[in-house]
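Quick board copy: two proteins, each given as sequence then tokens.
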Amino acid sequence: MGLQQPSEEPTIQNTLEEMGEFTITEKEETEKEVKKEDDERKELYKDTIEIGANKIEVITEHEQSDEEIFDESLDTSIEGHVMQRTNSDGDLIPSDDQLIDADVLNPMISVANRVVIATRVADALKSVLESQNLIQTISGHDYVTVSGWSTLGTMIGIRVEIESVEPFPTKARFGYRAKVNLIDGRGVKVGEGEAIATSGGRQKEEHAVYSMAITRATGKAFRLSLAWIMELAGYSSTPYEEMPESMINKK
């Protein structure tokens, strides 16, 4: 009678195989695949951290936050919205039901199509300025007040954000320097302006000088960014409040 071969010693792997479950090797492969998927969901992001008065850009690896996902979705939706309205040459189709006024500053749209929008905006603006008496005539030329320029901004979805108003050294009793930014509907800065005002001019009270500095800075910001649209409407590209007081007094 021959010797009986000893039975194979049971192991965790053999037990799992007998139970019909995956082997330890398969389990390790599965874990690797899961880890790979997790790593693929992580990307490199550029973050800005503040250390004292210094700002340093660092590259970090992490999963997208809700805010980043929202921003990415917004950018994708805007790009898709524009791409859906383009012809075979990549130009935006000039149709009234596709072009919106806020697109006049959209860099993704061709200059030709932005002029189409600007012309339409200028025509609508002209009727508003005339009906609301937001135009001042000096030596035969029409100048739009800052309120009129702000109306243009509102029409295309731009708001004014005051960045700073600081005392300005002057021989006059009061002086202020103001800086403002123009912000579009997405919260992107599209223009800026800086100006001063002193009590040596028409404004004598401190609060009036303070306000005039802001008014002039606002007018300058709009002029630097939107003068071409105002000229399409047939008006001077210089806001009324920026005109020399000697000329204003002669009107």
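And the next:
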Amino acid sequence: MSRSQNSFIKKQREKKKAQKRKEKEERRKERMENNNKGGDLSNMMAYVDKFGNITSEPPEKDSKEDKKEEPKQ
């Protein structure tokens, strides 16, 4: 009787391990499918405006800044 009970317990333990492995694999696959890391480069870009604030939009080019005169040497 002792022998059959031990084998039953071993079988139950193996079933639990297999079930845990299966659940872990399913969670891993779900994480891989729903992974949103490393998106587009434009989503990760940050810009600094003329006041020093960080924004997600690129700064507008002012015509005054483009036409700055360089000192003649």
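Board note added afterward: The radius of gyration is 31 Å.
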